[in-house]
Queue: 2 jobs
Job 1
Amino acid sequence: MEFALSEDQRMFRNMFRDFAAKEIAPRAEEIDHEETLPQDILRKAANQGFLGATLPEKYFGAELDGVSYAMLIEALAGACVSVALTVATHVSLVAMSILEHGTDAQKDEWLEAMAAGEVIGAFALTEPEAGSDGQAIATRATPDGDDVLLNGVKVWVGNGEIAGLFLVFAKGPEGIDAYLVPRDAPGLTVGYREPTLGLRSMFFNTVYLEDCQVPSANRLGGAGEGWTVAQKALDRFAIAVAAAGLGVAADAVDVAAQFATERVQFGVPIAKKQAIQNYIAEAHIEVEALRYLVYRTAWLADQGRDFSAEASVVKAFGARVARNVTNRMVQVMGGYGFMEDYPMARKYRDARMLGLVGGPTELHYVRVAQHIFAERDLEITP
Amino acid sequence: MDFTFSPEHQALRRMIREFAENEVAPLAAEIDREHRVPIETMRKLGEIGLLGVCFPQEYGGMGAGETGYCILMEELGRICTSTATNVGAHIGIGAMAIYLDGNEEQKRKYLTPLARGEKIAAFGLTEANAGSDAANIRTRAVREGDSWILDGGKVFITNGGYADIVTVLAVTDPALGPRGGITAFIVETQWEGFKVAREEDKMGIRGTSTAELVFEELRVPHENVLGKVGEGFVTFMKALDMGRLTLGAACLGGAQAALEWAIRWAKTRNQFGVALAHKQSVQWMIANMATEIEALRSLVYRVAWLVDTGRPFSQLAAMCKMYGSEVASRAIDMALQIHGGLGVTRDFPIERAFRDARIAEIFEGTNEIQRIVIAANIFRQHGVRIRP
């Protein structure tokens, strides 16, 4: 076993951290408060190659390996989880789905523009009546000559407001299909933006599809293969969400540990109190456990085998660690942890979202259990 | 043993619930969004006597005891944490210090208008370098003839931005420290030298005012010394004991609301062809929430009974605050999880409850301080003296 990062990975990690510290961290509080993601941040990320992070060089991607990509998301999330998951939605959910399932024409049409940040990807699966139960979607794809008409309502569409391309899932004649729907497709309307607890610089929108017309050639993958496309995308995204959890948790420990050395009560820095030491130590242990689980799962995903069970493991654990660690670090900071002009309250709000974004923890538990019991020839339904 | 509420307390609960649902609930989302204290609610609560719920009738109170006060806090906590917080800061610690240790004159002059809601109180203890270490305050009071001159400041003062009366703790003899050197004062905020320096921008309880107060040569007449000179720390700690119990009661209400939302949603929301209620993951959450809430309810009203019957309760009040805040946080977290996306959108009250709940583990003595209080009490009975 080799646990050391390669020379390249170390170099990338430093570059990611520099970028996050310089370009994102100083603005994180402001963009959270204003609930916006200024275009120049994404432009700068694109200039660094982050928006095509794992795409091949052929499409002007950075062709990062999985571990390096996880470290990118980790570093971005340390500064701002919204930015990290905006990038992860774009890369893991949309661009990589096109790379994996797309025709040459589809790849040529979209990937270069996505790597350059000219087109941002959005993922449109969830519906009002289909949350955890994604296969229960009611959106229809009806063939109409060389085109297809999409009808339905999607909610919680990540990146909706800023997207140029929507990966839309709909029921066609042979099952669930995936479609690449440009923003200017007739009949597509980006609507209500969710006012969220955390991830306030990310955009989650309702998207209306009313006789939305796209060429049949925009179907991504074969007829009826949409659910596979969605599952694989969500598996990739699960690792990215866990990496974001790692980033926000690790940074929370940093911030709180620094606070504990400076805050004096009862005549000593509170770091000298065992209760505070326990909070910090437990948090650090969880962060380290998560770190190697994230990197290992990211490495595994590069090996070309199915990693869906491992993706659920790391997602559930990552969300839990992020939530528990930020919760304890709020406590370390006392009243200052509750104030919005200190970073911990935002980290805590953001971290809580990770137990829902990309599927609730309970759904990932079902998937882990399915995997365990499948080895014992017992089928589990959610 | 009798675990039933008296008919009077049952009637009081019905009246409060009706008020909370009609007058408090419609404002809960708005005051959070607009970061605004609902002063109109405080006035209405005062008009119907609820801001004097636990004080004797001779001071404009309702005389419903600590049990009645816990009922008020539970019912308000069920509807709006901000409103419960405003009321708790006003009655539970602000006015309470005057009720506990004020003289007859002070009670007539200050407690009566506070009980009627004509004036609003705040409790001025915390300073920038005296949070958990409350005895480390630096605000100074120096005797000058018939007056005391106060210099210094307070931070994180609930109701601080709009209160009429603030009870302020200040050092009167630095050599003596908390044992004899700290005195409580009743300060009118209209007096010269009193300034609200800053309002905090908080994650939750955004319908409350959390202010930084500055005192510059603030002249306080000697008659406004609360209790005896040098004994202010004890007065403040006694008020905090009462506040801890009723904060536990407010948390009980918050947890109860979360359980009610979770049950309602688990019944209505269908996924995988069945209502969420049929999923064991959800059943476990509901069962755990309900069990903890029942344990908390028993604890809160048992301690209220201890107070009302004049028995010692300090250690149990610390448990109420600590356990109550953690039960509420856990219950609201689970309710949020059961609601999925609906749990994290500001269009639905759980998101607000999640932000509001977190402060209860921190303010009015962090839960770490409560654990120290509890452990110190226990070890004292076993001959061991604990220092924080």
Job 2
Amino acid sequence: MRLTQGCFSFLPDLDDEQIRTQVQYCIDKGWAVNIEFTDDAHPRNIFWEMWGLPMFDIRDAAAVMLELEACRKVHADTYIRVSGFDSSLGWESVRISFLVNRPKKEPGFRLIRTEGAGRAVRYTVQTEAAAAE
Amino acid sequence: MHAPDTMIDALADVSAEGIDLRRELADTRIAEVLDQLDNELVGLAPVKTRIRQIAALLLVDRVRRRMGLTSETPTLHMSFTGNPGTGKTTVALRMAEILHKLGYIRRGHLISVTRDDLVGQYIGHTAPKTKEVLKKAMGGVLFVDEAYYLHRPENERDYGQEAIEILLNVMENQRDDLVVIFAGYAERMDRFFRSNPGFRSRIAHHIDFPDYTDEQLMAIAEKMLAAQSYRFDAAGAAAFRDYIAARRKQPHFANARSIRNALDRMRLRQANRHFEHPGLVSLDDLMTIDAADVRASRVFEIDEEQADKKG
């Protein structure tokens, strides 16, 4: 199942040149660019693992592409996303986030039904990757 | 100073039927930077000539590339050698601007680092530190001051070597992304390049910064003072000429930097002189540095002592 999450997720995957352009946009806006990865891409999982530190004082997207390349080498078969954090007063939050890498085979999600009191049914969405653990 | 101009002229003639290089020059607006370089910096004729030549080369290369003649990015890494205070950092700043205007670097900023910024203190600390600096410099110019400290032959386990290897790797593989300029004293840089042959072949332009003459230092002093709305009176100027001659003979002479420090101390004396004098001070007094402010310098005492010893 193809994961659609964050910006541009219904478009075809961005190629490196497009990623570079987006990253440069973030830098020009003054946002700190982060690279994060995970195999558990549940929409509620906001804690992806960070690749290195947030990149605050860089001027050019080449630096981010360098790190992304390094991250892809190590975590080729996971989801990797790039996010831009705006630290200016009033925002102080992530302004953009988009996928830049996905595993070859995307396991998708499974629906778990739990019988509750009476005839109530509670539903849980679980990622296959988490289930495999 | 005429040589570089004729060079650009000559190039313009060659392609007279095709492209107007002058217009190209005007479009990139590097002429402004070059003029600024001429006006701001006293002396340094060989450096300015060299920079004009590099600028002309890059400009032609840009045109050639547009015509589909070459595709290879030229190697732009440089080494600036010269004694302290000869304007290496200032020229590097201008260089970044020129390269940016010609489109060889994307941002045009300059990151100035020394050994401390690149080399870590324990195993595994150096690589991330160097990479961090390189990331900051991407799209601009990385200025490595006193680069020879990176290499310490007396300690074979020194982490400097690791930083050198990372630098070399990036200099080779990411020529489009950043330009590295090494700076330092001529002879020590020479030794550094000899023990790291990888650098020499990767650096295209070696620029040597000559020492300033006394006349040039005087011009620099006047420029510095004018920038802060001060001036010498006639006696003060004569005294300062003597000061330059005397200071040059003493150790740790750092060209323009010594001059700047001397001027700072003279401003201090001038302020004190006015403060201790009862009575009113005129605008003219506030601006003028006179002979007494200059002559009070310790440099003259030391100079006399040395003269006595010899005599």
